[in-house]
Design goal:
Blueprint lengths: L1 H94 L23 H5 L9 H37 L26 H8 L2 H41 L1
Helix pairs in contact: 1-5, 3-5
Length: 247
């Protein structure tokens, strides 16, 4: 009987030892798994910080160029408004004999305008890197609006290059009488007209009247496109500033 009790006790002790080992092994496995999970979480956290820093740099770089574009667009908008006013003055001078107060008004028949925003040129490739879908969509829409303004301004420049400049440079247009002061003449004279009466007569020709109407239409188109672009630019700047402040 005693022998039987000893065997039972030995087996229980042996079983308890195995259970202890099993529990210890399970505990070790759990610690290893938890350690791995913590390491992965820390690594993900560090990668998240690095990614946020990259996004923040992209936002700041785009914002800097958007502000440059803002100055360019606002300046160009004022220039086209000036074009528009001068074309109306010239048209009135031709049609109803109104005197053009600004002697430089006729020079605006020869100026073309440069449209040179920098944001699209510098950041077109950055769009796919942006994590914020709203900003990415807004930036694409901004570039689309910008392209519309470019088309409008190119149309204006085409009228200047293909119609008004060639007309003023045509031979014997003014019967060899000086219209521009030769000592100041560059291709784009500024305030150099010496005989407004002659140039007014030249502008009364059907070809030039048509070009003037085209310029007025194109200028209005450019002003409308630039206003829309300025608004889109302002909205995008505000959106980026808010996103940067959240970082």
């Amino acid at each position: 009987m005693l022998f039987l009790l000893r065997n039972i006790r030995r087996k229980l002790l042996k079983n308890n030892k195995i259970t202890t080992y099993l529990l210890y092994a399970i505990g070790e496995i759990i610690l290893v798994v938890v350690g791995i999970l913590i390491a992965v979480s820390i690594d993900d956290w560090n990668e998240g910080i690095k990614e946020n820093e990259k996004q923040l740099k992209i936002y700041n770089d785009i914002l800097i160029d958007l502000e440059k574009d803002q100055q360019h667009f606002n300046g160009l908008l004022e220039v086209f408004k000036e074009h528009n006013l001068n074309y109306y003055d010239i048209y009135d001078a031709i049609k109803i004999g109104k005197q053009v107060v600004n002697e430089k008004a006729y020079d605006w028949m020869l100026y073309n305008r440069t449209f040179a925003p920098v944001t699209k040129q510098n950041h077109q490739s950055s769009i796919d890197k942006l994590k914020n879908n709203t900003i990415r969509t807004s930036l694409n829409e901004y570039f689309t609006i910008q392209e519309g303004a470019r088309i409008a301004i190119n149309e204006f420049n085409d009228i200047i290059r293909s119609q008004t400049r060639p007309y003023f440079l045509s031979e014997n247009l003014f019967n060899d009488e000086a219209i521009f002061q030769e000592d100041k003449y560059a291709f784009l004279p500024k305030g150099t007209i010496t005989n407004k009466m002659l140039i007014a007569e030249a502008l009364k020709q059907p070809k030039m009247l048509q070009a003037l109407v085209f310029l007025r239409i194109s200028t209005g188109y450019s002003i409308a496109a630039l206003k829309r672009l300025v608004n889109a630019n302002n909205d995008l700047i505000l959106m980026l500033e808010k996103e940067i402040d959240k970082q």
